[in-house]
Structures are given as structure tokens and as C-alpha cells.
Amino acid sequence: MKAHDAMYIDGRWRPAATADTIAVVNPADERTVARVPAGAAEDVDAAVRAARAAFPGWAATPPAGRAARIAALRDALAARADAFTETITAELGAPPDLARTVHAGLPVVIADSFARLAATHSFEETVGNSTVLLEPVGVVGAITPWNYPLHQIVAKAAAALAAGCAVVVKPSEETPLTAQLFAEAVHEADLPAGTVNVVTGLGPVAGAALAAHDGVDLVSFTGSTAVGRRIGAVAGAAVKRVALELGGKSASVILPGADLRTAVRASVAQVMFNSGQTCSAWSRLLIHRDQYEEAVALAAEEAAGHTPGERIGPLVSERQLRSVLGHIDRAVAEGARLVTGGPAAPRDLGHYVSPTVFADVTPGMAVAQEEIFGPVVALLRYEDEEDALRIANGTVYGLGGAVWAADDATAAAFARRMDAGQIDVNGGRFNPLAPFGGYKRSGFGRELGAHGLAEYLQTKSLQF
């Protein structure tokens, strides 16, 4: 694992505009493992200028040519599986198995999907006497989070490249080493200089400069709703395109007749995945009153099996740790019943939180309304299906969710009434070609598959 003391701009590593740096801390042992440049507005400007210069040539590259370069990027990512595993374990704290299979493995699948889409997608159609063209939107500013550092970069950059856009990536300051390793893969894939640029830095400095830059045509942001609002305001003032994938407070609804044990255990495990640091985590578990106490016991049993330091890693930072512990304290103060876990530190070192289950949660409590972004699950009772639907839809968010029932038809009928962008039916498998994104304050725009590609295209019609 190494860190570059430079920015990847215009196909090369170039010195940063200032000597300021950011410490990269391993959240498992709290050691500083590296330092990277803290980019300034000058670095962002250089990256955007490089992207603008590269855009016309890349946009004019035939789709098959773009597909070939994205496939080369896919192969370069796959060849670095060990390096990505080590890096993501060090700066995010993900257990090595999770880092390898999901954090390093899934982006290869996503890159492959966009290589195939670039080659097969129809960028032109005939409508009556018109020819409708789908053209790249231009230069994309991709501002990515720390929780899935490589996946989020690849989901944005590969889609933008497939569309014919040039990209400037500003990764989270918590996980910049993964982004630098991604830049190495870009370089090996022989993408034209300036097509992909990576600038490390702080959100209020480098991120803000990228969102506001006149040379950026679209800002794609994944992160908190609060920051998304600010980016949306900046983009709106400049009349530029924006795609926002924001917070969530997703519900897993277990209907009578479902396999209770399977549904509860799968739902709790999904919340504990990546230490609860997943925007679409099913952090609210809705159970019929007649099965409630049985479900509470099953949830506690499942949570107890996620041992900190083994099956579950630390939270990414001390700030995130304080935030999650504050949510736990507030839930107790509001009267939720702490079933397992809680604020006590499970290990002497590292930003760990014990897997935590709350029962007797009511819909108005903060633990049922606010995104916690940690291994905390709230169990709520419902009276009947209409009550369950009211509770499931009763937050400002609408990102993900799940429904469990005796059969898929019953679960799907309920899922169709939920206000959320992606809902698993009876444990449905992840589909990298299906669109991902939210309703309400979970944002707008979609990632992955053809719908994700469409975010980076604009439409022109020629009348004959």
C-alpha cells in the first residue's frame, strides 16, 4: 500500500497546489497509515481544464472504442484485487473477506457491465420524421463517499465514460488511497489523458470547488442529505445537471405468513453489513404485533453473532463513532428498549460499536426517523398491513427496503405501494444492471445499468 503525494491530472501525477495534507487513519487501530494532498481550488481547476480538453476526443470515440477502454479498466481493477483489499481494510476498516469480495470484487462486475453497455446501447433512434441522438452531457464532477469507496467511484466513472463524458473524481477524505489506486488502474488502462482525473481533498474546499466550477456540466454526488442540498443549490444556480444519491431509513417489512426466522436474521445481517455504513440499510424492522417478541429474540440472537473485529469492522472515524453513540443514547432517553449492544466499547482500541438492537420503538422516535449509519436496528410493531405501510412510508427518506411474505405475489403487491427506489422481495438477489436511487429526500437520479448510463446523456432531435 502506497500513497501518492500528487494529484492524477491529465494522465500524470502532478504536484498539488499547496503543501497541505490529509492524514489517513486506520479506524481499527487508530494509526495514521498515510498522508495525501489536500487539494485546493487550483487543483480542481487544473483537473476540470484537463477534462474539458479531453472531452471532445473521447465523445467522438465510437462506442466500441469506449467499450474497449472500459474493459481494459475492468481488467486493471481486477489485477489490483490484493492491493484494493489491503487498502480498503486499512483506511475503511472493512474485514479482509468483505474488502475482497464486495469492496474490491463488485466494482469489477460494475465496470464489466458498463463496458458491455457502451458496446450495445442504442445512442440513436428514429421517431417519425426525427432522428433522436443521445449525446454525452460533458464534464462530470463525481464526488464520492467513503463507505464503498471503490464501488462508488466506478459506478459513476464507468457510466460516464460509457456515455462519452470526461470525469473529475473527488473522493472522500476518509478513503483517498483507494481513489489513488483507482487512478493507477485508469493509467494502466490507457484511457486518453484527461479523460479521468482524481483530486484528493476536503469536501468544503475541493468538493465545493468542483461542484461550483463553470467547466463542470453535471455533478454526481453520493453522501448525506445535508451536503446534497448544498450541492443541489449550487448546481441549480448554475443551471447544471445534478444527480444525488443521499440518505436512507429503509424498512424491512415482515408480513404474516413469511418465514419469520429467515426474514429477521437476513434483515439484521443486512444492517450489520459494512458495520451498518450502508445508505440503503434496512435499519427499521417492522413486525406484526402477534410475532413481535419472537422477532425481538431472533434479532438479538443474530446481532450477537456479528462479533466486532471479526464479522463486523469499526466505524470509519472517531466522528462517526461519536455520531452513532449519540443516536444510541438518544434512543434510550426516548424510551426505546435496549435489547443488545449499546454504548459500551466492545474493544479497547478502534472505532467499534457493538451490534445494537432496539425494541419498543415507535414511529416518532429519532431512532425510527434519522439515518444512523451504524450497526443499529430498530424493531417496530404494526397492527395490520395498512399500519405497516403507513410506518414504512412515514419518513422523509425513500431509498431502499424489503418485504417478506408467504409468497412473492403478496410481497410484491406490498412493495409496489412503498415509497422507495429499490425494494427486495423475499430476499431477492442484488442485480448490478438494475437502477439504484431514491425517492423523496433520498435524492434523485439513478446509478447502474442502462438507467445509470442515461444520467450522463442528453437528448438531441434532428427533424427531417
TrEMBL record:
Domain Aldehyde dehydrogenase: 13-461
Short name of one Pfam family: Aldedh
Taxonomic superkingdom: Bacteria
Region forming the signal peptide: none
Active site per UniProt: E245
Claim: Methyltransferase is one of the keywords in the record: no
Keyword Chloroplast: no
Keywords: Oxidoreductase
Coiled-coil parts of chain: none
Family (UniProt): Belongs to the aldehyde dehydrogenase family.
Name this polypeptide is given: Aldehyde dehydrogenase family protein
